[in-house]
Design a protein that fits this description.
single chain
Length: 394
């Protein structure tokens, strides 16, 4: 199963709106027979790749899958039936499928006489598929907030200079995060000061993420901006009443720029409305790379699922802090995080943490959660499963 989790991770950023899934098949004697992972939406699922690799050796064998085999016919057929037809005798999966359109594979397998077990390495598989699971359960994309700061928490000096606080190694690592994301989001402040490109560099085969700039008044992004160069798709989010005439021919070759109009909020644009729009576009994971103000708005909205901070061994003593106003006025109201990883990246320290308590951001209309009915299979490890009625293309 750990090998299946590692296989699934190979497709991060390439399968949306589908999940990442890995599968390993052992033959009847317990020897490796085949493996595979879901590589892109519309293509064969992990189980199909693994069954093709295993061939006749799959008969009487065991399939280890990171997500419950689907029982749904979309652009591909149901994996539950493919496993039965291949003669698989036992299926062990890590996480139950929360999607009402595709779940039920375990029931189909058991009805066909296949032994089914659930929950092996569930926590690892959940973490690897956090973006898709969040999108199904909450009806919005998973949001990872990334920032780079000095050891005393400054993201720029008092004179606004910020290039470069962290090392080349850290900046290369950020491109890995971009490659694993469906969209990269910045605000007008970052667009104005940095004129960022936001494309992926140095990651062979990466699917370019959607570049999103929140430009409330439509006054920052102009023709010639690096984000409009055509290297990746771009979306400019503006207020309902903003004048976007200048964007009608600001794209590559004079093409119009893709613009979404969103309702205003107390600070800029509505975060829930933005996430709802991105979710409707098939975006399941967002890398938030904006400055302190944008990060504060997302934290205030309860829309940050993971924080990755790159801390450089540098002191400034003045300048903007990493996080702006997030609506937190007392220590009792602080958003507490659970640290999950600390890693040296060149001379810097990369710290990864997740909120101890999460607040679902409602979409329009408000998202609601229902508890999925337990599957009639044999649990290896208890797994909580909640579901939002949100279809996926599988």
């Amino acid at each position: 199963m750990r090998r299946a989790v590692a296989l699934a991770a190979r497709a991060l950023g390439a399968t949306s709106p589908n999940p990442v899934v890995g599968c390993v098949i052992l033959d009847a004697a317990g020897r490796s027979a085949g493996e595979g992972f879901h590589q892109r939406a519309g293509g064969p699922h992990a189980e199909i790749h693994a069954l093709r690799a295993a061939g006749d050796r799959a008969r009487g064998g065991t399939a280890y899958v990171t997500l419950e085999p689907c029982d749904h016919t979309g652009r591909t057929g149901p994996c539950s039936r493919a496993l039965v037809e291949a003669g698989i005798a036992r299926v062990v999966y890590a996480v139950a499928d929360p999607d009402p359109a595709a779940r039920g594979g375990a029931v189909t397998l058991r009805a066909a006489g296949v032994a089914v077990e659930r929950g092996l390495l569930a926590e690892e598989a959940e973490a690897g598929n956090a973006a898709w699971l969040t999108s199904v359960r909450l009806g919005r994309p998973y949001v990872l907030w990334k920032y780079a700061a000095t050891l005393d928490g400054r993201v720029a000096a008092a004179d606004a200079t910020s290039r470069w606080i962290t090392s080349a190694e850290s900046r290369a690592d950020v491109h890995r995060l971009r490659a694993e994301s469906d969209a990269v989001v910045v605000g007008s402040g970052t667009a104005r000061v940095d004129d960022p490109h936001l494309a992926v560099r140095g990651v062979p085969g990466a699917v370019p993420p959607l570049r999103v700039v929140l430009d409330t008044e439509a006054g920052v992004v102009r023709a010639g901006a690096r984000v409009l160069d055509g290297a990746a798709p771009t979306l400019i989010a503006v207020a309902d009443d903003a004048d976007t005439t200048h964007l009608k021919a600001a794209g590559p070759g004079g093409a119009p720029v893709d613009v979404v109009r969103l309702p205003r909020a107390a600070r800029g644009l509505s975060v829930p409305a933005l996430l709802a729009d991105l979710h409707a576009r098939g975006v399941r994971s967002v890398l938030l790379e904006g400055g302190p103000a944008l990060a504060g708005a997302f934290v205030a909205a309860g829309a940050v699922d993971k924080v990755v901070g790159y801390l450089a061994p540098v002191l400034l003593g003045a300048g903007p802090a990493a996080l702006g106003d997030a609506g937190i006025t007392t220590l009792a109201g602080a958003l507490r995080l659970r640290m999950t990883e600390t890693v040296r990246v060149g001379p810097d320290l990369r710290v990864t943490a997740i909120p101890e308590r999460r607040t679902a951001v409602p979409t329009a209309p408000a998202a609601h959660e229902t508890t999925a009915r337990p599957h009639a299979d044999t649990p290896v490890h208890p797994v909580a499963a909640t579901a939002q009625d949100a279809p996926k293309e599988r």
